[in-house]
Amino acid sequence: MATAEDVRRIALSLPGATEKLAWGRPTFRVAGKIFASLGDDDAWMGVKCPKEDRDELIAAEPGKFFLREGHDDHYAWLRVRLAALAGDDELSAILTDSWRQAAPRKLLDAHPAPGA
Known about the structure:
116 residues, alpha+beta, 6-stranded antiparallel beta sheet, 4 helices, 6 strands
């Protein structure tokens, strides 16, 4: 089971990543843009996710992915239950994907995705 400390460790291992408190909770940023945050009870995290992909992810794995109704409706954001993750590899893949959505082009060019 993934923990808040696992999220912190992996998020901060990404190039240019920093941690900053916002709304009383840890957020993880690249170039000042949030790519992940920890939930109120450290049981879930929020990550960037294109709006057009969210419904499919939630439908495929509703025990893993969810939205906070009324809060995430207008944002490219998705919630992930940490206990539902298969381990570090899955957590790392989700955080890296979110990081890639927030990172500036120069940083992305310096750190291409595997297989790119």
